[in-house]
Amino acid sequence: MLTKSKAFSGFSVDDVQKAKIFYRGILGLQVRSNPMGMLELDLEGNNPIIIYPKENHIPATFTILNFPVEDIEVAVDALLEKGIVFEQYKELHTDEKGISHNEGPLIAWFKDPAGNILSIFQQE
């Protein structure tokens, strides 16, 4: 029944304008305003991701978006220059930049202005 459905994902923020500035201005993503007061992220190869305002927003405690990159060191450095602060997780062996050298791909986590967790990871 749903196998041919064009599913999409969404997440909440406490301030749509701050989210728009962050996702468009800092991360450089295509962001469209929606007539219902929401934002739509246009990511290559995906249906849009909806960002909606929620008055009693609580940040996700899990990663809501993962961005594959070719070179994580280059991507982390570029985002650091834009003021992004990467999370430090002792149990995941993150280095001084926030890159995890645990099993699996190299990965680094950061938060959007609403406190939602995002990641970049190096494609193998």
From TrEMBL:
PROSITE patterns: VOC (PS51819). Residues 5-123 form the VOC domain. InterPro entries: Glyas_Bleomycin-R_OHBP_Dase, Glyas_Fos-R_dOase_dom, VOC_core. Transmembrane segments: none annotated. Gene3D superfamilies: 2,3-Dihydroxybiphenyl 1,2-Dioxygenase, domain 1 (3.10.180.10). This is VOC family protein. It comes from Arenibacter antarcticus.
